[in-house]
Design brief:
RNA-binding, about 475 residues, 14 helices, about 15% strand, 4-stranded parallel β-sheet, 3 domains, Rossmann fold, Four Helix Bundle (Hemerythrin (Met), subunit A), alpha/beta
Length: about 475
RNA sequence: GGCGACGUGGCCAAGUGGUAAGGCAGUGGACUGCAAAUCCACCAUUCACCAGUUCGACUCUGGUCGUCGCCUCCA
């Protein structure tokens, strides 16, 4: 039975969908004005694993993740500049060109990391009518008020505001750096619609004049549009729980009178030397740069080695550890090959069953991927031992299927080296044969020279029992 | 100031009221022509600190110290 930590109740709860077997999941997507960094990677890998695991459990999941291509300001006062517009000026492009460019970059990085595409990736600018409708409803129900060309949500009309983040009461003023817009009735009130200045490029006509939607509105509008008024799971980064998700709850619940989200999930941050990796500190590492130095699957495994609700401190040492672990998994998978199915031995069936049981036990416990990986590594040792003895093709097939299902299908860690397909695979076999031949004839100097040259070219040599050698590209 | 999270071996990282998974690194051994890979063995009497509850706590309660996040856009 899967249990998930619900930020709203501050405890792990058994997961049951509203309308089984269907599950609606909404995850806050990126604002597309820059390339993705490791922090995005951790977040979206975590939720990708949630999706994969739900599907492994045979739920029919609809996964919606927005693309924010408008509307967020550089600061809380109305004076802030649209971030896309700012980046557009910098790059001398249209805001929509910026959105296109970084949306493509985002998808490319996520594909490389092995994340499945969301079923729907709605753009905020494509849902302005839905957002305007939502504001109208809030007006009708007395939760919104107008101040000039701006429209605000009246927080005092929604008593549950602050429940998710534990910020009850209105004394959020002391010690904060919030610059309160002076046309708000209450400092906690937040914008639903903002009047656009003359030089603002991204703007739309509305009942309240030309403007653009508030910062929190798009997620409410798009989540409800595609997943209904009550959605099963809403995910996002921890830093979004307040104010973003708090405001989403207020808007959506006030508009429909129904519970908006049943399970709130928040993933923790990537840190660098203990400090949050983020755009404001400028201490971020871009995924595309990371991929130059590390195989994307190393990065993925590195992320999975810590729990999604724990912070992950970025270090080369950690990445190196993940790399060794990945090599271990790859090595076993490659030893198993691609054999025919059949009737495996009892010991193999037993091992496979135990492994899957342990794996599921960890995953059921709020997606404990470090625990799930431990089960996999124990399987690797046991599998290697079995391979030392007499194993049938059916045994190997059975073990290979398990690895493919748990490591690749559920955790998304690709274990086939598709990079070495075709001709290079043939070359590796020929060179492996050559080293075997040289060793058999005790031409060790020549054999070792070949090994050294291959190492320099990025290939590892492994002498197998029986005199042949295996050549594989390094990761 | 308010809200919240965390503190486990050299590093990373799980965990249960009944006596510490796993990975990396390290050491010794088997195997090898030598390596690598693989396997075997070793590697925290101890889980920030101090009290308390308990037959028994790393796990529950209270306190102390430390680190971090949010309260402004941010995954």
């Amino acid at each position: 039975m899967l249990s998930l930590y619900n930020t709203m109740t501050r405890q792990k709860q058994e997961f049951t969908p509203l309308d089984p077997p269907f599950v609606g999941v909404y995850v806050c997507g990126p604002t597309v004005y820059g390339h993705s960094h490791l922090g995005h990677g951790k977040s979206y890998v975590s939720f990708d694993v949630l999706l994969r695991y739900l599907r492994y459990l045979d739920y029919k999941v609809r996964y919606v993740q927005n693309i924010t291509d408008v509307g967020h300001l550089t600061d809380d006062a109305d004076s802030g500049e649209d971030k896309l517009q700012k980046q557009a000026k910098l790059e001398k492009l249209e805001p929509m060109e910026i959105a296109e460019k970084y949306t493509a970059s985002y998808f490319h990085d996520m594909d490389t990391l092995g994340n499945l595409r969301p079923d729907i990736s709605p753009r905020a600018t494509g849902h302005i009518p839905e957002q305007i409708e939502l504001i109208k409803t809030l007006f009708e129900k007395g939760h919104a008020y107008q101040a000039g060309g701006n429209v605000y949500f009246d927080v005092s009309s929604f008593p549950d505001y602050g429940k998710l983040s534990g910020r009850i009461g209105d004394d959020q003023k002391s010690g904060t750096r919030v610059c309160v817009a002076d046309d708000k009735r209450d400092p906690r009130d937040f914008a639903l619609w903002l009047e656009a200045s003359r030089d603002h490029i991204l703007k739309w006509n509305s009942p309240w004049g030309w403007g653009y939607p508030g910062w929190h509105l798009e997620c409410s509008a798009m989540a409800m549009r595609y997943l209904g008024e009550t959605i099963d799971i809403h995910g996002g980064g921890l830093e979004n729980s307040f104010p973003h998700h708090e405001c989403e709850i207020a808007q959506s619940t006030a508009a429909t009178g129904k519970e908006f989200v049943r399970y709130w999930m928040h993933n923790n941050m990537v840190t660098v030397d203990g400090r949050k990796m983020g755009k404001s500190l400028g201490n971020f590492t871009l995924l595309r740069d990371l991929f130059q130095r590390w195989d994307p699957m190393v990065v993925r495994l590195y992320i999975l080695r810590s729990h999604y609700r724990s912070p992950l401190d970025f270090s080369d040492e950690g990445l190196a550890g993940a790399k060794s672990g990945l090599e271990r998994l790859l090595s076993l998978r490659s030893r198993l090959g691609d054999p025919e199915a059949g009737a495996p031995a009892r010991a193999v069936l037993e091992l496979v069953r135990e492994t899957e049981k342990d794996f599921r036990k960890s995953m059921d416990d709020d997606l404990n991927t470090p625990g799930a990986l431990a089960a996999l590594f124990e399987f690797v040792r046991a599998g290697n031992i079995l391979l030392e003895g007499n194993t049938s093709e059916a045994d190997k097939q059975c073990m290979a299927v398990l690895l493919d299902r748990l490591a690749t299908e559920v955790l998304g860690v690709e274990l086939t080296s598709e990079s070495s397909g075709g001709s290079s695979e043939d070359l590796c076999r020929i060179l492996g044969g050559l080293r075997g031949y040289l060793r058999k004839n005790r031409l060790f100097q020549e054999a070792d020279k070949l090994r050294d040259d291959l190492a320099e070219a990025g290939f590892s040599v492994r002498d197998l029992p029986g005199g042949v050698s295996e050549v594989t590209p390094d990761i």
